[in-house]
Structures are given as structure tokens and as C-alpha cells.
Write a sequence for this structure.
């Protein structure tokens, strides 16, 4: 299972937001996507999640070319996104939020005709999913407004991960959090990847990117300027790539790709 | 983001218990206020605790409550329906005009079938108005306040136009008979009808996917859209419910007076909204219960009929409901502010 972006470009009225971007994520891998403001991170995120169409280039899922016309189509191809606003309903409990849009109905007439919810089934599914991802939510019956910022982020990621089959896009998941909560969310991201999902991690927090990612792509002025192995990287070098102080020679790699 | 880092598990669990307690204690508070008002009127007038006043109050309440039930769905979904009173008037007038103008003198069709046709027509008219409200709000993206205020004008004007402002008597006697019949002397037929609607409303709002999504839509509309739910269709359904119940209320109003009047629903939107807000629903959406609305309707109705019993001039009724509505919203906002500061 993999998701690949080939030669994606996107222009907005003559301005090149993305130029010939190549990018990929494999199952079980956490890939970082970093870059300064205006580098094209959110444009790429929107294209991957189906909210925006590329001007040229294409997306390939498991070797098959796909077109994400809407976020719904992207989800059908197993690609889900968690945005910074989290899309949670504060006055509803964890169970309701987890199943938003995917509510389970009772079997038999009460479900098919009267659309009655099967709350016990929903509740136990949430409990088992949260346990599988080893999350630390206090209770599934608590209203979301009574959860901490980290717990809300945890819920949003766990929800998306549970319904996601291929790739999970995370937009700045640790930015608004305290230190301990950041650590919890990073552990959760690792566990999501271990469950066989490819994770794309978009962040400004270099420390977090280095802590959790396997590979890191650096976007600069709409181009991928570096693809880096996170294990042999420090924050200073990474920032060097982001600001353009360090330049990766990508000619040999591009040559390799072309000959493949 | 509100809470502190590493919130201890016990504190959050306590908060969640607190959350459910708020809902229960809110209804207990409303019931307490209702009881206090009843005791007050009992002291002030020997006529308050009588069979005649029970029959009058409970029947009056059905009309207010039916509008309040529809309004509960609307307000939970973060909307408002100002057109319910005018819709009630129009639905009654359309049904009345058809029955007296086309079906009368009821010899060929029969009294009861004519009444049933009239009832269907009233509910159908109410439903149609509700659907138009929903379409304006969901597809033309006109704010609910403006769309339903505009429809208030349209429905109100149309109900006067039908008969140049005249009331219509001569509707089938079956409607008046049913509307004023008391089962075993104590239970008016409209109360039975309304009780059934209440039971269905409780089921729909608390047990079904439709109810769940109504709360979600009011709590975070963007999240609902993001989840791939057809929010527009849902909104149209919510306003359709409110409209259909206004049509049903129109039949009950017609039954009580044995006539159709273009002023039947005057000020009813004020009563309906007061009912829902007193019942604990939030005008910001996402919160409210049918049981709370039933209590709210009881408070509004007992105030209305009680004031008449203690011989307060009738114009004070509307003033009282207005003041109570503002007070209820004020108190709820104070509570929200305290909760936010916590």
C-alpha cells in the first residue's frame, strides 16, 4: 500500500504554488512535510485530501492512477485528513464524535426503518479502537469540551485513523499543545503507522518532525528541494534546507527516477 | 485550547459527570419553577386548581407545545423559525377555505371525510411552508432569522388575503366536536394527539441517527459537512418538521374555536421560542431536549391562563411571555459565562 504524487503542479492565476512535486508515502511509514510559510505545504495537503485539484501531474495509489475530485472521493481511496480545527462537536460525547457520519444503526426493523442508533455497539467499538491505539482518553462518555487540547487531538487522530485504510494526513497536530501532550500525540502517530497506515506529518515543530518521521520532504517555494533520512538529521541541518542555506544535489536522484 | 497539561484523569471524569448533571439539574430547575408558579396561582385564585382550568390550560398548551416541538429541532440545529405562528394561521385558513368553499355543505363528501381532507390540507400547507423555509436557508444560504421572518410576512399576508381578513365559520362540526371532546371528562383529544407527537419527538431526537445529526449540525456545522453528511437535506427536513407541526397545531386551533381565523397564530412564534429556551435549549445550537420543551410549554401556558384567572388584563400576557423569554436567555448566558470561567 502506498500513495505517490508524480510531477504535481498547481498554479493560482499565474503564480506557481507547486512545481513538479514528487512525493510518496508507504504503508507503516511516517513522512514529514516541512517548509516555511508559503512553501506550498497546505496546497499539497489540499490536493492530497481532494479539496483542491492539481493543474497538472497525478496521484497514484498502489500503482493505480486516481483522481481526488472531492474529499469524499479521497476518503473512498483510503486517504483521510485531520485539519487543525479537528472538526469535533464540543457538546457531544466521544462516542458521537467518533462515529460522526458513520453512525451504526440497529439491526432489524428499528434500524432499517426507524433509523435507531445502536449505541452499545458504537460505544464498545470506540473503546476497543481507543485501546488498540493505546490512547489515554478518560472516558468515552465525556463531552469533548471537557477534554484537554491533547485529548481532543488524540480523539481526532484516532477517529481518522480508525476509518482510514491507506494514508492519514496530519496538519500541525502538535502545534497548540503542551510538552507532555505533544509526546502523547507523537506516540499515537507512531502507533498509527505501526498499524500499517502511511502517515503524512505536516509541521513547523522541527523537534517533533525529527522525533517521529522516517523520511522528510522539504518544500521550498513550491518545489521539493530535499528528501532526507530523518535518522541521520539534526534540527539545524533541517532548518538549513528549509531556509535554502543548504542545497541538496538532487540531479543524481532525479536521473535515477527517470531511468526507472 | 482550555485545559491544562496532563489533566488528571479523576478531574476530567468528574467534569463529565458534571456535564450530564447540568442537563438533569436544568430540567429539575424548570420543573421547580413550574411548581412555584402553580403554587402561586393556587394561592391567588380558588379557580386555578379546578377541572375547568385544567381542561382549558392543557388544551391551550397543546397548541404552544406543538410549535415548541418543531422549534426544538430547529433551535438545536442552530437555526430559528419565526414563521411558525403565521404558518399556523395560513395552514388553518387554507384548510378552512377549501372545506367551506369547496366541500361544504358536506352532504356529498360527508362531515368526517371533509374534516380529514381539511386536516391533511392544513398539515400539507404547513409542511410546504417549512420546506420553503428550509430551501431558502440551506440552498440560498439566507440566514434563518431573515428567511423565516420574510416567510412570516408572506404567510401572514396570504392568510388575510384568502378571505379579506374574515374568519371562516361553517367548517365541519366533526372538527369542533373532536377538538372539544374530553375523554373520561378529563383528557382533551388534543392532549392525546400532542402526547403521541411528544413521544415520537423524544424517540427521533434521542434515539435515531436523524436526532444525533441534528445535535451535531448545531454543535459544529463544519464538522458535519466534513464528515460527508448532506447538511442541506438535513436542514430542509428540520424546517419541514417545524412547518408540519404548525399545520397540525392549526387543526387543533380550528377545533377549539370551531372556525378558522387569520389571527389564530398571532404571537405564537414568541411563545414557541420562549418555550424552547425556557426548556433549556441553547440559541447557539447543539443543546436542548424535548422533555425540557414540554416543561417550558407548561410554564408559558400556566402563565398565560393563570394571569387570566387572577383577572390581569389580557394584554399583559404577551408582555409576560416576552419578559420571561429574555430572563431565561439572560440566566442561561450567565450560567455559560460561569462555566467558561471555571
Amino acid at each position: 500500500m502506498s500513495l505517490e504524487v508524480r510531477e504535481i503542479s498547481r498554479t493560482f492565476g499565474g503564480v506557481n504554488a507547486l512545481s513538479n512535486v514528487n512525493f510518496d508515502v508507504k504503508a507503516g511509514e511516517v513522512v514529514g512535510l516541512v517548509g516555511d510559510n508559503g512553501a506550498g505545504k497546505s496546497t499539497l495537503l489540499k490536493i492530497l485530501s481532494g479539496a483542491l485539484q492539481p493543474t497538472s501531474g497525478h496521484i497514484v495509489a498502489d500503482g493505480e492512477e486516481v483522481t481526488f475530485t472531492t474529499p469524499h472521493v479521497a476518503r473512498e481511496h483510503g486517504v483521510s485528513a485531520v485539519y487543525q480545527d479537528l472538526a469535533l462537536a464540543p457538546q457531544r460525547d466521544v462516542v458521537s464524535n467518533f462515529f460522526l457520519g458513520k453512525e451504526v444503526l440497529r439491526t432489524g426493523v428499528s434500524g432499517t426503518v426507524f433509523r435507531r442508533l445502536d449505541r452499545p455497539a458504537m460505544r464498545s467499538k470506540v473503546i476497543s479502537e481507543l485501546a488498540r491505539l493505546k490512547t489515554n482518553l478518560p472516558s468515552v462518555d465525556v463531552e469533548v469540551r471537557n477534554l484537554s487540547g491533547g485529548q481532543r487531538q488524540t480523539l481526532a487522530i484516532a477517529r481518522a485513523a480508525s476509518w482510514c485504510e491507506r494514508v492519514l494526513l496530519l496538519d500541525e497536530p502538535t502545534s497548540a499543545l503542551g510538552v507532555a501532550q505533544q509526546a502523547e500525540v507523537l506516540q499515537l502517530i507512531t502507533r498509527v503507522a505501526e498499524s500499517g497506515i502511511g502517515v503524512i506529518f505536516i509541521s513547523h515543530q522541527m523537534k517533533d518532525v525529527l522525533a517521529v518521521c522516517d523520511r522528510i520532504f522539504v518544500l521550498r517555494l513550491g518545489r521539493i528541494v530535499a528528501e532526507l533520512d530523518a535518522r541521520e538529521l539534526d534540527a539545524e541541518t533541517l532548518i538549513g534546507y528549509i531556509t535554502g542555506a543548504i542545497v541538496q544535489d538532487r540531479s543524481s536522484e532525479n536521473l535515477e527516477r527517470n531511468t526507472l | 485550547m482550555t485545559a491544562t497539561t496532563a489533566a488528571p484523569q479523576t478531574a476530567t471524569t468528574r467534569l463529565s459527570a458534571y456535564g450530564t448533571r447540568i442537563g438533569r439539574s436544568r430540567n429539575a430547575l424548570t420543573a421547580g419553577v413550574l411548581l412555584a408558579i402553580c403554587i402561586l396561582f393556587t394561592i391567588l385564585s380558588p379557580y386555578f386548581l379546578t377541572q375547568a382550568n385544567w381542561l382549558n390550560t392543557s388544551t391551550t398548551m397543546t397548541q404552544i407545545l406543538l410549535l415548541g416541538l418543531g422549534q426544538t429541532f430547529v433551535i438545536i440545529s442552530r437555526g430559528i423559525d419565526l414563521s411558525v405562528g403565521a404558518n399556523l394561521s395560513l395552514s388553518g385558513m387554507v384548510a378552512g377555505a377549501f372545506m367551506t368553499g369547496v366541500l361544504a355543505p358536506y352532504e356529498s363528501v360527508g362531515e368526517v371525510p371533509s374534516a380529514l381532507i381539511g386536516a391533511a390540507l392544513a398539515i400539507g400547507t404547513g409542511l410546504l411552508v417549512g420546506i420553503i423555509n428550509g430551501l431558502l436557508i440551506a440552498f440560498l444560504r439566507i440566514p434563518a432569522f431573515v428567511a423565516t421572518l420574510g416567510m412570516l410576512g408572506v404567510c401572514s399576508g396570504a392568510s388575510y388575503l384568502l378571505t379579506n381578513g374574515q374568519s371562516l365559520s361553517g367548517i365541519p362540526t366533526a372538527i369542533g366536536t373532536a377538538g372539544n371532546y374530553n375523554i373520561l371528562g378529563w383528557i382533551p383529544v388534543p392532549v392525546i394527539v400532542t402526547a403521541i407527537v411528544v413521544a415520537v419527538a423524544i424517540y427521533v431526537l434521542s434515539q435515531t441517527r436523524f436526532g444525533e445529526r441534528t445535535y451535531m449540525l448545531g454543535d459544529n456545522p463544519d464538522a458535519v459537512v466534513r464528515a460527508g453528511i448532506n447538511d442541506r437535506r438535513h436542514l430542509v427536513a428540520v424546517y419541514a418538521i417545524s412547518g408540519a407541526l404548525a399545520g397540525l397545531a392549526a387543526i387543533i386551533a380550528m377545533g377549539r374555536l370551531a372556525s378558522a381565523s387569520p389571527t389564530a397564530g398571532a404571537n405564537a412564534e414568541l411563545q414557541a421560542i420562549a418555550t424552547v429556551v425556557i426548556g433549556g435549549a441553547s440559541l447557539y445550537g447543539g443543546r436542548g431536549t424535548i422533555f425540557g420543551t414540554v416543561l417550558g410549554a407548561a410554564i408559558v401556558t400556566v402563565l398565560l391562563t393563570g394571569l387570566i384567572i387572577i383577572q390581569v388584563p389580557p394584554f399583559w400576557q404577551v408582555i409576560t411571555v416576552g419578559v420571561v423569554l429574555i430572563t431565561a436567555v439572560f440566566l442561561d448566558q450567565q450560567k455559560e459565562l460561569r462555566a467558561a470561567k471555571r
Q: What stands out?
A: Residues 2-89+165-259 of chain A form a domain with the Rossmann fold fold (CATH 3.40.50.300). Chain A has a mean pLDDT of 88. Chain A has one domain: 2-89+165-259. The longest helix of chain A spans residues 179-194.
